[in-house]
Amino acid sequence: MEAALEVAARYCRDEMEQYGRCVASSPTTWQQDCDQLKLNISRCASSHPIVQKIRHDCAEPFTAFEQCLKQNQASVMNCTEHINQFLICADQVKLTT
Predict the structure, then answer these.
(1) How far apart are CA 70 and CA 77, in angstroms?
(2) Higher pLDDT among residues 87 and 6, named by residue
(3) Do residues 9 and 38 touch, judged by C-beta distance below 8 A?
Protein backbone atom coordinates (compact mmCIF):
# COMPACT_ATOMS: atom_id res chain seq x y z
CA MET A 1 0.00 0.00 0.00
CA GLU A 2 2.84 2.37 0.74
CA ALA A 3 4.09 2.01 -2.81
CA ALA A 4 0.65 2.73 -4.24
CA LEU A 5 0.22 5.77 -2.04
CA GLU A 6 3.68 6.95 -2.98
CA VAL A 7 2.87 6.62 -6.70
CA ALA A 8 -0.43 8.46 -6.28
CA ALA A 9 1.14 11.14 -4.12
CA ARG A 10 4.07 11.59 -6.50
CA TYR A 11 2.15 11.71 -9.76
CA CYS A 12 -1.28 12.94 -8.70
CA ARG A 13 -0.39 15.21 -5.78
CA ASP A 14 -1.96 18.37 -7.20
CA GLU A 15 -5.21 16.58 -8.03
CA MET A 16 -5.37 14.98 -4.59
CA GLU A 17 -4.68 18.25 -2.80
CA GLN A 18 -7.30 20.14 -4.82
CA TYR A 19 -9.90 17.46 -4.11
CA GLY A 20 -9.03 17.41 -0.39
CA ARG A 21 -9.36 21.20 -0.14
CA CYS A 22 -12.69 21.07 -1.96
CA VAL A 23 -14.08 18.35 0.32
CA ALA A 24 -12.90 20.22 3.43
CA SER A 25 -14.44 23.48 2.28
CA SER A 26 -17.79 21.93 1.28
CA PRO A 27 -18.78 19.59 4.13
CA THR A 28 -22.41 19.25 3.05
CA THR A 29 -22.15 19.59 -0.73
CA TRP A 30 -18.77 18.04 -1.52
CA GLN A 31 -20.35 15.22 -3.54
CA GLN A 32 -21.57 17.71 -6.14
CA ASP A 33 -19.02 20.48 -5.72
CA CYS A 34 -15.96 18.24 -5.96
CA ASP A 35 -17.09 15.73 -8.57
CA GLN A 36 -14.89 17.13 -11.36
CA LEU A 37 -11.85 17.12 -9.10
CA LYS A 38 -12.53 13.48 -8.22
CA LEU A 39 -12.60 12.69 -11.93
CA ASN A 40 -9.26 14.45 -12.33
CA ILE A 41 -7.72 12.11 -9.73
CA SER A 42 -9.20 9.09 -11.49
CA ARG A 43 -7.76 10.17 -14.83
CA CYS A 44 -4.35 10.77 -13.30
CA ALA A 45 -4.26 7.53 -11.33
CA SER A 46 -5.50 5.40 -14.19
CA SER A 47 -2.24 5.97 -16.05
CA HIS A 48 -0.12 4.32 -13.30
CA PRO A 49 0.01 0.50 -13.28
CA ILE A 50 0.00 -0.13 -9.50
CA VAL A 51 -2.87 2.27 -8.92
CA GLN A 52 -4.75 0.78 -11.86
CA LYS A 53 -4.25 -2.73 -10.47
CA ILE A 54 -5.48 -1.69 -7.02
CA ARG A 55 -8.54 -0.07 -8.56
CA HIS A 56 -9.23 -3.28 -10.45
CA ASP A 57 -8.47 -5.79 -7.71
CA CYS A 58 -10.16 -3.79 -4.94
CA ALA A 59 -13.13 -2.39 -6.83
CA GLU A 60 -15.69 -4.02 -4.54
CA PRO A 61 -14.45 -2.60 -1.21
CA PHE A 62 -13.82 0.78 -2.84
CA THR A 63 -17.37 0.89 -4.23
CA ALA A 64 -18.71 0.01 -0.78
CA PHE A 65 -16.65 2.86 0.69
CA GLU A 66 -17.97 5.34 -1.90
CA GLN A 67 -21.55 4.20 -1.23
CA CYS A 68 -21.00 4.67 2.49
CA LEU A 69 -19.73 8.22 1.87
CA LYS A 70 -22.83 9.01 -0.18
CA GLN A 71 -25.09 7.74 2.61
CA ASN A 72 -23.13 9.50 5.36
CA GLN A 73 -22.22 12.87 3.89
CA ALA A 74 -22.65 14.62 7.21
CA SER A 75 -20.77 11.98 9.21
CA VAL A 76 -18.08 10.39 7.05
CA MET A 77 -16.46 8.86 10.15
CA ASN A 78 -19.18 6.21 9.92
CA CYS A 79 -17.23 4.81 6.94
CA THR A 80 -14.05 3.92 8.82
CA GLU A 81 -14.63 0.18 8.48
CA HIS A 82 -15.22 0.54 4.73
CA ILE A 83 -11.97 2.38 4.14
CA ASN A 84 -10.13 -0.13 6.32
CA GLN A 85 -11.42 -2.99 4.15
CA PHE A 86 -10.25 -1.17 1.03
CA LEU A 87 -6.82 -0.50 2.54
CA ILE A 88 -6.42 -4.15 3.55
CA CYS A 89 -7.23 -5.17 -0.02
CA ALA A 90 -4.91 -2.58 -1.55
CA ASP A 91 -2.08 -3.60 0.75
CA GLN A 92 -2.25 -7.14 -0.67
CA VAL A 93 -2.03 -6.06 -4.32
CA LYS A 94 1.29 -6.76 -5.98
CA LEU A 95 2.39 -5.45 -9.37
CA THR A 96 3.79 -8.25 -11.47
CA THR A 97 6.45 -7.13 -13.89
Answers:
(1) 12
(2) 87
(3) no
Instruction: Please state, in angstroms and as integers, the Cα–Cα distance from residue 36 to each residue in 18, 32, 39, 40, following that order.
Output: 10, 8, 5, 6
Do 22 and 30 meet the contact criterion of CB atoms below 8 Å apart? yes
Indicate the residue type of 8: A
Task: Give the global pTM.
Answer: 0.54
Closest to 70 measured CA to CA, from 37, 30, 38, 33: 30
Q: What is the pLDDT of residues 49-76, one digit of tens each?
A: 877 788 889 999 989 988 998 898 888 7
Between the alpha carbon of residue 76 and those of residues 10, 20, 35, 62, the distances in Å are 26, 14, 17, 14
Cα 11 to Cα 97: distance, rounded to the nearest angstrom = 20
